[in-house]
Structure formats: C-alpha cells, structure tokens
Design brief:
The chain is α/β, with parallel strands linked by helices. It has one domain: Ribokinase (UDP-N-acetylmuramoyl-L-alanine:D-glutamate ligase), CATH 3.40.1190.20. The chain is 37% helix and 25% strand. Strands 5-4-1-8-9-10-11-12-13 form a nine-stranded mixed sheet, sandwiched between helices. A four-stranded mixed sheet has the order 3-2-6-7. The protein is globular. The model has no long low-confidence stretch (mean pLDDT 92). It comes from Candidatus Amulumruptor caecigallinarius.
C-alpha cells in the first residue's frame, strides 16, 4: 500500500439546521473513516472563497483529514434543512455551488495516478463540470485487478438521470445502493416486478461488477459477489442519529477489503462500524480500538 491512497470524491458542504450548521458531504465522511483504519485517504471537492469554505477546511484540519480541495468562484455548498410540523426534515440542496464546479487540475491528475480505491456518487455529478472531473479522474487511475472503484448511489431531489446512473455503473466495479434506491433504479432500467435479490444479481452480471452492496436499513445488508451472497443483520442499538452511517459502512468495508479480509469479515466489520456511528452524534466520531484492529 506504499504511496497509494484511497479517495472520496464529490460534495463538500454544510447542513444548515434549525439548531446550527454541521459539516456534510460523503467524501469527507468516507475519507475520515478510512483514515481511522490506518490507510492514507483524501477528500476531493471544491469550496468557495468565503467564510464557510475557510471554516470547512479548519474542521478538516482539526479532524486530520487529508484533502485536495480547490477554491473556485462559487459559494461553498449548503443544504437548508427545515423541520415540518410532523417533525420530518425537508432538504433543499443549493445549486450552482463550489462542489458543482470541481476543476480537473495537474494536482488532481497526480493524485489519481496514486489512487488504489475511489468512492464517488451520483449527487456530485448533477453539474457537467464536476461530472467531467470525476470521469477524468477515473480515466487517470491505475486500472489493475487491485483497483476498487466504488459508485455509492445517492438519489437526491431529482439530481440524477438514467444516463448518469448507467455510465457510473459501467465505470465502477463495486456498486453500493440501498433498498429504496434499488426500487427507483429498477423502474428506470425496466425490471420492476422481481424481488430485491434478483435485481441485485441482474445488476451484478449486467455491469460485470466485483461486488454489489445492498443496505436495507433495519432489515440488514447484503454483499453480492459472483456466485455468492453475504448477509448481515442490522444490530439493535440506541440511535443518536444516522448521519454518515452509510459512509462509515462503505469506508470500513473498503479499508477491510484492501487489508485482505474476506468479504464476509469485511461485511461484518462494516456493519459493526456503521452501527457504532449511529450511537454517536454526528458523522465523524472516533472509532473504538476494537472496531479498527
């Protein structure tokens, strides 16, 4: 693993809640948790030349998150979170912000050349600039049997379409999707009337994937590999919040896989880490030693 890095790429933003703001965005969550397993990780995104951008980097520095984040002439991303009368949060993800405009630079190309694994999603591809940068980064990565290219589907506010999803599935070798997203994707791709596991086998074969990870909330999670499936129940824990739990799952699974653990063991560890994160406030708690040994 010498000089090789694991990259989380996409949105860096602030969730603006009624009680204040919190750092959001999958790349930083993913990179932070990967680093807790002793691997060299980077968050890749963009911020604006503004107070929110400066504060975001201060938070990354405090968490010892490595990053390659460019400053661009757009505002730092925010998500306005409103709580309705029934207590249900409503999200408004601001558009045409910094992370929509991640530039492809010589520094980023050099990082791509050292990248052993990358995790990217669909939300960061809603704008052509960041979408192009993600695809160029994937082109510049080493493409050998050990490279892991993870597409973590995240369908938000209609910021996705069939072309983006199809291209991303073709580019990845590990697909991570939840049960609700799988239903939506299945409708788009024309096979809605079969059960979830059959849908997963179809996607695994159609896109020649190494693995497909399906998370089903309290109903457990699955890792499909050609000819095999691993299932883990979801532990019953006292939930503080679920923010960042999915990103911690992905990070723990990828870090464990890169360390040579078999699929079932990497899956078990990912479930344990994700459950622990749910018991803590915020997306980036320090993991206890027994989860990262």
């Amino acid at each position: 693993m010498t000089n090789e890095v694991i990259v989380g790429m996409g949105e860096a933003l602030w969730d603006v809640l009624p009680e204040g703001k919190k750092i959001g965005g999958a790349p930083a969550n993913f990179a932070y948790h990967v680093s807790q397993f002793g691997l060299d990780s980077y968050a890749v995104s963009a911020i604006g030349d503004d107070a929110l951008g400066a504060e975001l980097l201060e938070n990354f520095d405090a968490k010892h998150i490595n990053y390659l984040i460019e400053t661009v002439p757009y505002p730092t991303g925010t998500v306005q979170v409103e709580i309705d009368q029934a207590g249900i949060p409503q999200y408004e993800i601001k558009e045409n912000v910094a992370w929509d405009n991640i530039p492809y630079t010589a520094r980023l190309e050099a990082l791509a050349g050292r990248t052993r694994a990358v995790c990217f999603g669909s939300l960061a591809q809603r704008n052509v600039v960041s979408r192009s940068t993600i695809n160029r980064f994937l082109d510049a990565m080493p493409h050998d049997d050990g490279s892991l290219i993870v597409f973590d589907v995240n369908l938000r506010q209609g910021f996705y379409n069939k072309d983006i999803l199809c291209n991303s599935m073709k580019r990845c070798n590990i697909l991570k999707i939840n049960d609700e997203e799988l239903v939506t994707v299945s409708r788009m791709f024309g096979y809605p009337g079969i059960d979830l596991q059959d849908k997963c086998w179809i996607l695994l074969g159609k896109y020649n994937l190494k693995m497909l990870i399906l998370t089903c909330g309290i109903n457990g999670s699955y890792v499909f590999t050609p000819g095999n499936v691993s299932f883990q129940p979801t532990p019953k824990v006292e939930v503080a919040d679920t923010v960042g739990a999915g990103d911690s799952f992905t990070a723990a699974f990828i870090a464990s896989t890169l360390k040579g653990l078999p699929v079932e063991e990497a899956h078990r560890r990912a479930v344990e880490v994700s459950a622990y994160v749910c018991t803590q406030a915020g997306a980036m708690p320090t993991l206890p030693d027994d989860l990262i040994k």
